Amino acid sequence: MSTNRLRSLGEKTVGPGQPVYITGEIGINHNGELENAFALIDAAAEAGCDAVKFQKRTPEVCTPRDQWDVERDTPWGRMTYIDYRHRVEFDEDGYRAIDEHCKKRGIDWFASPWDVESVAFLEKFGVPCYKVASASLTDDELLRAMRATGRTVILSTGMSTPKQIRHAVEVLGSANIVLCHATSTYPAQAAELNLRMIHTLEREFPNVPIGYSGHETGLQTSLAAVALGACFVERHITLDRAMWGSDQAASVEPGGLQRLVRDIRTIEDSLGDGVKKVYDSELKPMEKLRRVKGVVAEAESAAAGTGADGADREPAAV
Hints:
This protein is an alpha/beta fold. 38% of the residues lie in helices and 18% in strands. It is built from 12 helices and 12 strands. It has helices at 34-47, 59-62, 81-87, 92-105, 116-122, 140-148, 162-172, 197-204, 220-227, 254-271, 280-289, 295-304; strands at residues 7-9, 12-14, 21-27, 51-56, 71-74, 77-80, 108-113, 129-132, 152-156, 177-182, 210-214, 232-236. The chain has an 8-stranded parallel beta sheet with strand order 7-4-3-12-11-10-9-8. Helix 7 links the parallel strand 9 and strand 10 (177-182). Helix 9 (220-227) runs parallel beside helix 10 (254-271). The longest helix is centred in the C-terminal third of the chain and has 18 residues, at 254-271.
């Protein structure tokens, strides 16, 4: 296996021939509550995920100035949009607690930084990688800041044209990235998932591992992405899809997450190497069920000095 399509995410390797790297995207589904974040980390760890992912923003940078003072209803009462953005962000102490909890549960964590200041913030924690949200694919300054860290960068490609994707890859460099096919609708409809894009990206970027970031409801299509070759899978996770927040409806609850991880591992085991062979477990059923051994089997057996049933045979007397 060529190593030019393998990437390191912490102590794990992502790429063809490696176990699918499964990420539970917490995002902001914690609603600014550490207890919710801890519960989601626990759910991901118990399901067997490799990592959880958060979103990190500097509110004053990421919120348009004309929206700062717009009031909105929230679970914490009516507040301005800038106050809301601060309410759902964790500070350094919060992320220290998250870091400690993830270490205790044996699961990695990383984040999608939405601005350059957030990259500098996350560097304090030695995260295994960074994720570029689809909305940030066109932010060259942010991409360059992530590339400068030397860490692997996972690039989601939703809401983007082929030219935009190629430009982002040029900015990041192809040597240390993972590309994720995505459709940025919440929730995304099956008819717009276009999973064959996984193969398109493989052909377009032959030296880059290809993954899938899903925003659909249900699990079937994420499993199909694995069967099509995705080596990284990310799904939003939630404690309850009825919770407040724009991402909750397109998220997977703990029970579904356990099934998703279980079924991905089963699919991995089932894909095989593509080389046809007769397994030892098939020999007894073949002996019992195959009435005509066939000329090919008899010729192969004669050449090998065995009978058509595989038993050793003495050479015929002459």
